[in-house]
Design goal:
Layout (H helix, E strand, L loop, with lengths): L2 E11 L2 E11 L2 E7 L8 E4 L4 E4 L1 E6 L1 E2 L2 E2 L4 H13 L3 E6 L6 H14 L8 E2 L2 E4 L21 H8 L4 E6 L7 H10 L2 E4 L6 H10 L1 E4 L15 H8 L4 E5 L7 H15 E4 L11 E5 L2 E6 L2 E3 L5 E4 L3 H12 L3 H4 L5 H6 L17 E4 L5 E6 L2 E5 L1
Parallel strand pairs: 1-4, 1-5, 6-9, 9-10, 11-12, 12-13, 13-14, 14-15, 15-16
Antiparallel strand pairs: 1-2, 2-3, 5-21, 7-8, 17-18, 18-19, 19-20, 21-22, 22-23
Helix pairs in contact: 1-2, 5-6, 7-8
This protein binds zinc ion.
Zinc ion binds next to loops.
């Protein structure tokens, strides 16, 4: 259903909250908003009864959800993922690949290309995020060691030529990956340092070369030591590097989530789910890329106990982030909206409630639960 007007809203904008507000939508974009009596309209109206409305949530690192994965899920799996995450306030996402044989990654990117854009009843797919195989075996996490490799020009070039990649994670301390870093910068693809054993000095050099983001900070990287700050120390202190944070409270302990927030602030912290197919599924054993995974208590692990992505939604992540940092949605809404939009270069049309931007909105009740999601003016979820 396409909406024309939202009423009785408390809008979180860059200028601060606007209470007792209305917001008018035209052609899927925000036409205007203000507090006070709403304008009249012939179109559909959503009265949110005083609820808080943020820009729609944006997840730039998400492998799956509700039994589906980017890898091997095909266009149907991708659109199912987009619908699942929209039920949790997400209005845009970058389906993420993982380390796999070239043909499988290429197929996944072609699948993403096929469904890039609005998804009926779901979040908009903005492109893809490539995570692996150009990472470091020393920090492989759940990525398959035997498939991790340096970036070879013909192969990685073919991935970029799908024109669907918006974010790519690589290990920048590996010299053979430097040409790919440069090629991404040239094409406007955001480069993240991920699954990296870079020292602080190596990360600083990589940032000068164009790395602008750290993949799930603290996870899959050289940690923070007081005499060798590592990739984590670099990510926390280099102003040009934004930090992805898996905010499920499992991947990074809450006090360290707080540390990331204190170091990076609203412009440098972006919440991600890193969710896999187990997000939205009950506890149990599942098959993932030929391996058995177990979901127990909201944690998804390989048989050897390695954590393999999260089962959290961005809605849950936001809750846990607020709890860990002692902040409110009013103060930190940017970390799941405007900051990820900036990180992947779409802030001209997404990420904040501003006239002319896409009408992407998430509605939160007093307990912080998502009760409605609006994607480009379409009501795609309502509890
Ligand atoms: Zn990862």
């Amino acid at each position: 259903m396409s909406l024309s007007l939202l009423t009785s809203a408390r809008l979180l904008t860059r200028a601060g909250p606007v209470t007792d507000a209305w917001l008018r939508i035209e052609d899927g974009r925000i036409a205007d908003f203000d507090s006070g009596p709403p304008p009249t309209t012939e179109g559909e109206v959503l009265d949110v009864a005083g609820a808080t409305v943020t820009p729609g949530l944006i997840d730039v690192h998400v492998h799956g959800g509700d039994g589906n994965e980017t890898m091997g899920g095909g266009p149907e799996g991708l659109t199912a993922m987009a619908r699942f995450h929209a039920r949790h306030g997400v209005t845009s996402l970058l389906p993420s690949t993982w380390t796999a044989p070239h043909a499988e990654v290429l197929t996944a990117l072609r699948d993403v290309a096929e469904v890039t854009g609005p998804v009926d009843g779901g979040a908009t797919i903005l492109g893809a995020h490539v995570e692996g195989p150009y990472i470091n075996v020393a920090r492989k996490g759940a990525h398959r060691q035997e498939l991790i490799r340096p970036a070879e020009r013909a192969e990685a070039g073919e991935l970029l030529d799908t024109d669907v990649v918006r974010l790519l994670a690589l290990a920048p301390e590996i010299d053979a990956n430097h040409w790919l870093l440069d090629a991404c910068v040239e094409r406007g693809v955001t480069v993240a340092a991920g699954h990296t054993d870079a020292t602080y000095a190596q990360l600083a050099t990589a940032a000068e070369r164009g790395v602008r983001q750290a993949t799930h900070v603290f996870n899959g990287m050289r940690g923070l030591h007081h005499r060798e700050p590592g990739a984590a120390g670099g990510a926390l202190t280099l102003d040009t590097v934004r930090c992805e944070l898996i905010a499920d409270g499992v991947h990074v302990a809450p006090p360290v989530m707080d540390l990331v927030w204190r170091a990076k602030g609203p412009d440098g912290t972006l919440l991600i789910t890193d969710a896999g197919k187990g997000a939205g599924l009950p506890d149990g054993e599942y098959e993932r890329a030929g391996r058995t995974i177990t979901v127990a208590g909201g944690v998804m692990r390989l048989e050897d106990g390695t954590i393999t992505g999260s089962t959290a939604t961005l809605e849950v992540g936001l809750h846990r982030f607020l709890a860990a940092t002692g902040t409110t949605l009013d103060e930190v809404w940017q970390v799941a909206t405007l900051t990820p939009a900036r990180a992947i270069g779409v802030a001209d049309r997404k990420g904040s409630i501003e006239v002319g931007k896409d009408a992407d909105l998430a509605v939160f009740d007093e307990a912080g639960a998502v009760t409605a999601t609006v994607v480009e003016g379409r009501l795609v979820h309502r509890t």
